[in-house]
Amino acid sequence: MILLDTHVIFWLLTTGERLSGRARAAILQARIAGEEIVYSPVSIYEIAYASHRNRMELNLPIDDFVKAIQYQLKMAALTAEIVVCAAQFPDFFHGDPIDRIITATAIVMDCTLITKDDKIREANLCKVVW
User: Fold this and answer.
1) pLDDT tens column, 33-58
2) 111, exposed or middle or buried, with CB in 10 Å at 0-12, 13-18, 19+?
3) Chain-centre distance of CA 68, in angstroms?
4) At 9, which CATH number?
5) Number of domains observed in the structure of the chain
6) Among 46, 34, 59, 35, which residue's Cα sits nearest to residue 8?
7) For residue 35, which phi and psi values (nearest 5 degrees)?
8) How far is CA 80 from CA 98, 101, 104, 105, in A?
């Protein structure tokens, strides 16, 4: 199973050009193998908020963009186990609660996280592809 970070979802559904070769290959391999490709529900919040604040330009109205995400990907459940895991990361890790929850989702669900985020990758808390 593969978990996509918020920026990866955005790039995948817009241009795809900013994805690394390894990220693109991992997504393609997962699709070919019939493996689940999931996203955290907090990514929907992050995209909607960034769009509302004009920090992310979507190629569709936000409701349609969310429907496109839901059509192409599966939403992972946000469980108490994930939230507790995110709260217990070491102090050196990300202060951003969204990134903490996404990383905890990868750990609890034992899946590979596709992210460009250096802080997440360097923390080495979960399996990461970029």
Assistant:
1) 999 999 999 999 999 999 999 998 88
2) buried
3) 15
4) 3.40.50.1010
5) 1
6) 46
7) -75, 145
8) 15, 11, 11, 11
Helices (H), the chain: 6-13, 21-33, 41-52, 62-72, 80-87, 97-108, 118-123
Residue 74, classed as helix, strand or coil, is strand
Spatial separation of the C-alpha atoms in residues 119 and 71, rounded to whole Å: 30
Range of the domain at 62: 2-129
Threshold 0.90, pTM exceeds: yes
Residues counted in the chain: 130
The pLDDT tens digits for 58-117 are 889 999 999 999 999 999 999 999 999 999 999 889 789 999 999 999 999 999 999 999
What sign for the dihedral angle of Cα 77, 80, 83, 88? negative
Distance CA 123, CA 29 (A): 25
